[in-house]
Amino acid sequence: MSATQKTAIYVEKYTQNFLELKIEGEGHTLLNLIVDELNSIPNVEAAYRVEHPLLKTARLMIRTSGSKSPLDAFREATENIKNKLEELKKQVAQHK
């Protein structure tokens, strides 16, 4: 993906305990990270699939037990990733 391309996210399906997002402009690298973080949250199950290996379009599916909305789980996972990356950045800076 070039520096000028943007990632586009579309809600394909949203219910009380299920969310399916279509994500254009991303592939395995980002989706693996997000799914791993989502699956570390109790009562949340997530998976993704890349629609075609030559196209940067993927679908992310999130299912919850209902104690938390799938959108809240997505927000929590992305915030956790952001915090972990900030901590990694600090650790790298300390070792320069």
TrEMBL record:
It is an enzyme of class 2 (transferase). It holds the Pfam family RNA_pol_L_2. The keyword Transferase applies. GO terms for biological process: DNA-templated transcription. GO terms for molecular function: DNA-directed RNA polymerase activity; protein dimerization activity. Keywords: Cytoplasm, DNA-directed RNA polymerase, Nucleotidyltransferase, Transcription, Transferase. DNA-dependent RNA polymerase (RNAP) catalyzes the transcription of DNA into RNA using the four ribonucleoside triphosphates as substrates. Part of the RNA polymerase complex. It catalyses: RNA(n) + a ribonucleoside 5'-triphosphate = RNA(n+1) + diphosphate. CDD domains: RNAP_L. HAMAP family: RNApol_arch_Rpo11. Its EC number is 2.7.7.6. Residues 19-91 form the DNA-directed RNA polymerase RBP11-like dimerisation domain. This is DNA-directed RNA polymerase subunit Rpo11. PANTHER family: DNA-DIRECTED RNA POLYMERASE I,II,III, DNA-DIRECTED RNA POLYMERASES I AND III SUBUNIT RPAC2. The gene is rpo11. InterPro entries: RBP11-like, RBP11-like_dimer, Rpo11-like. GO terms for cellular component: cytoplasm; DNA-directed RNA polymerase complex. Belongs to the archaeal Rpo11/eukaryotic RPB11/RPC19 RNA polymerase subunit family. It is found in: Cytoplasm.
